[in-house]
Design a protein that fits this description.
alpha/beta; Immunoglobulin-like; TIM Barrel; globular; heparan sulfate proteoglycan binding; GH; signal; Glyco_hydro_79; Inactive heparanase-2 isoform X1
Amino acid sequence: MRVLCAFPEAMASSSSRPPSCLALVALFLALLLHLSLSFHAGNRRPLPVDRATGLKEKTLILLDVSTKNPVRTVNENFLSLQLDPSIIHDGWLDFLSSKRLVTLARGLSPAFLRFGGKRTDFLQFQNLRNPAKSRGGPGPDYYLKNYEDDIVRSDVALDKQKGCKIAQHPDIMLELQREKAAQMHLVLLKEQYSNTYSNLILTARSLDKLYNFADCSGLHLIFALNALRRNPNNSWNSSSALSLLKYSASKKYNISWELGNEPNDYRSIHGRAVNGSQLGKDYIRLKSLLQPIRLYSRASLYGPNIGRPRKNVIALLDGFMKVAGSTVDAVTWQHCYIDGRVVKVMDFLKTRLLDTLSDQIRKIQKVVNTYTPGKKIWLEGVVTTSAGGTNNLSDSYAAGFLWLNTLGMLANQGIDVVIRHSFFDHGYNHLVDQNFNPLPDYWLSLLYKRLIGPKVLAVHVAGLQRKPRPGRVIRDKLRIYAHCTNHHNHNYVRGSITLFIINLHRSRKKIKLAGTLRDKLVHQYLLQPYGQEGLKSKSVQLNGQPLVMVDDGTLPELKPRPLRAGRTLVIPPVTMGFYVVKNVNALACRYR
């Protein structure tokens, strides 16, 4: 390197340096400074402007709905209910005539009521009015000896017309029953964990009570018969079922029928497997029993009520559809989301869990459409958590995200009916607790029934797209579904549309209604947890007001919050709600 100029170390001051060297040094330093600034500027990221620390940018989502034609039309009884036969075991069947319980069930009508579950295949019918007297000793409900005297005719006009038996049970009787049920709950759990079940006796009197509850509540009863009573050649032994059919016909009970519950589990619980072909023959046998009975010659028949569609279950369904696909009016299966023994509150917010149902639907549809294209498919016995559920989780506000998303997803994918396990039962997956108080999923179901009609509409959104990252699946934490508003709801004219929205984000989301929904008046029904427990709360509030039954035992009025026309919808974090867009005059919704 060539040195242009040098300075003696002993030089005392800059004034003694040559002027030409000073100018050169200054030029060199200026060049270095310029290069340094250019390098840093190229690697500098712009700082956020006018944004508070820790706040995410709010994305405006544009939302429109196709109003010309529905994409699906589901059953009028789309949201339906289930009662497990365990209510015979723990004594709650004797309290189905409770006025409060009937009122709660009526709120969810019209609907199907499926009487079935794990203990279906251990149920035996005996045409005895009171088995306790025939045995010469007290029965399981010995302290309810005055039960018949407590049943009174309701002063409701509808009850007088139908002859419904509505009871006002004394508090002491209810307290005794709760103590008994708590003890039996441990027995039932032990049976469930060990997969070994004891036999249950259904008497004529018990069947009368069950039908009285369904009929007075506006529910159509579906009775699942015992399929595990087998002949030596493994064919179905129909003797007990025939006795039940004849008794029901003599009482003129309007009932639809099923045979068995989760036949794919028969080997583990009974030691004897039943394949799909044999099960199909059993259904044909049941159909032949129904046809000579005038009342049931055209009764609906549903099945095979298989479990989660794994490989062996799909093989069973395939064999069944080959033999009896045309015999059943709808093909049924069950689904459970989470193992109730290990569930955590945040599990209910996982989008991956919410999406597990979609793949199962496609598997079932593929088999059904292979043999009977267009055959209706039902999801029966859907539960959020297995093993009877988990206290303070399965019965909490958090579980509602799974339930509401299930309703939206099933309707969108063409499932005709979904039956919730259970309306009232042991465990914690129910809609009503043992004090006859509605739980969060009940209020969610009530809003759905009041506001949502059977016609499903296509939703179009903009602003949700995010840049995908390699190796990461992006799932929607904001879920929006649209239906025509229930035409039985006289608060809204035909042509109105109801949206229901799930926001799993930890930040609020803004939605701007566009297209046919623009500048329309909106009624908001925002459901949030009530109390200090947050997502674990068993109480809810609607638009800031707690939801509780009225003192006289009736359901409260569900009051909406009107939003100004054209206003942006602001969806709070980790909440769900319904939004009725009024006077849209949607062509798809103007006619039934």
